[in-house]
Amino acid sequence: MNRLAIVFVITLVVLIAVAPAQARVWELGGGGGIERRGGMWGADTYSYPFRPHVATFVTPHLTIGLNLQYNSEETENTSLLELHGGPRATYYFRKAGPGYPFAEGVITFGMLFKEAPGRGDYSDGQFMIEAGGGYMYLINQYLGLYGKAYFQQHFYDDYVLGWKNGNKLGVQVGVRLFIY
Fold it and tell me: Is the CATH code 2.40.160.20 the one for domain 2-133+154-179?
């Protein structure tokens, strides 16, 4: 968890340093969705993450910020809890209809806590890269609703097996609040 705290502090320092004070617009958001796991997890495992974020506009179309993720999952044999966070960047394209299409990239670091028969309770370090895109419908200048699809590649440092990886495909819906 110390790595997560370091990533959080570095991201906040960069946010404050990059955006000029008189032009700073903040974006607060979050949402939930469904993810389908692949790779080491098997093809038919689903999870339901909660993913809040905070960001600031560094240009009229580009935000940088901090992404967090909480994900809990129970299966017949295993209980999983994922906690991670890290930097994110979102590029909003030209307005299309009542909103904006966007592309997003996220890199996070964190922990995967597991409880499994025969292995007991243990945790793995985790590194994740995500790429995705979607559409944000603007209700007014302060509030938007969004939907997105994404792909994640995870890398885990398993204490028994060493480094292993898996992937996820996901969809998410949520809200974004803009503070001027």
Answer: yes
